[in-house]
Amino acid sequence: MNSLSVEIKPARDETEFSSIEHICQLTRISSISLSERIKGLIAVSPEGIIVGGVLYYVGFQHNGQIIAAIDALAVHPAHQKKKIGKNIVLTLIEILKIQGTGEVTTVPINHTEPFYESCGFQPDNEHPPIYMLEF
Ligand SMILES: CC(C)(COP(=O)(O)OP(=O)(O)OC[C@H]1O[C@@H](n2cnc3c(N)ncnc32)[C@H](O)[C@@H]1OP(=O)(O)O)[C@@H](O)C(=O)NCCC(=O)NCCS
């Protein structure tokens, strides 16, 4: 299957944050730092299963504007390459724009620079290895 129709929505409780954490661990992302300030989005399949998610922070100040940072993004290995990761990131971008955030940054791992570029990010040449998207 080339795509899977998922609903993207905010992670609301500990169980949903734990699901994101679990998928991150399945994909061997180890540096997860769940804290009170972290927010999350989940991708839910038509069967109601959480198949991916992102953890992010909002509120860093840079050049007088509020910026967000993606901490961890993962799609369940059984459902990768079905546009779920892109759907999650593009939904996050729309949410951040509506909230008045000026910029979102991340440090791509696992050679995912092309993935982030396909979502509109560009390398921050002044601060490698950061990638960023200004709104
Ligand atoms: C990286 C990840 C989130 C991408 O999610 P996905 O649902 O598999 O990717 P998508 O189907 O949305 O791909 C969107 C685009 O990115 C490209 N892409 C996907 N995974 C990629 C990867 N690992 N490296 C480079 N490009 C990738 C796709 O080819 C696609 O390109 P296109 O739009 O030109 O067709 C997923 O592969 C994953 O969970 N990987 C393990 C965890 C990880 O490495 N996370 C990195 C961020 S912290």
Task: Give a short overview.
The chain is built from three helices and seven strands, in the order βαβββαβαββ. The protein has one domain: Gcn5-related N-acetyltransferase (GNAT) (Aminopeptidase, 3-Layer(aba) Sandwich), CATH 3.40.630. It is α+β, with helices and mostly antiparallel strands and 135 residues long.
Folded structure, characterized:
The mean pLDDT is 92. The protein has helices at 14-26, 84-98, 113-118, and strands spanning 7-10, 39-44, 50-62, 65-75, 103-106, 122-123, 131-134. The longest helix is centred in the last third of the chain and has 15 residues, at 84-98. Strands 1-2-3-4-5-7-6 form a seven-stranded mixed β-sheet, sandwiched between helices. Strand 6 (122-123) and strand 7 (131-134) form a beta hairpin. With 135 residues, the protein is of the alpha+beta class. The protein has a single domain (7-134), classed as 3-Layer(aba) Sandwich (Aminopeptidase). It is built from three helices and seven strands. The site of coenzyme A has 20 residues, from strand 4, helix 2 and helix 3.
Output the strand order for the largest sheet. Answer: 1-2-3-4-5-7-6
Q: Structural class, from secondary structure content?
A: alpha+beta
Bound molecules: coenzyme A
The percentage helix is 25-40%
Q: Could you describe the largest sheet, including whether it forms a barrel?
A: 7 strands, mixed
Provide the CATH top-level class. Answer: Alpha Beta
Task: Give the N-to-C terminal Cα separation.
Answer: 32 Å
Would you count the extended β strands for me?
A: 7
Shape: globular
In total, how many domains does the architecture comprise? 1
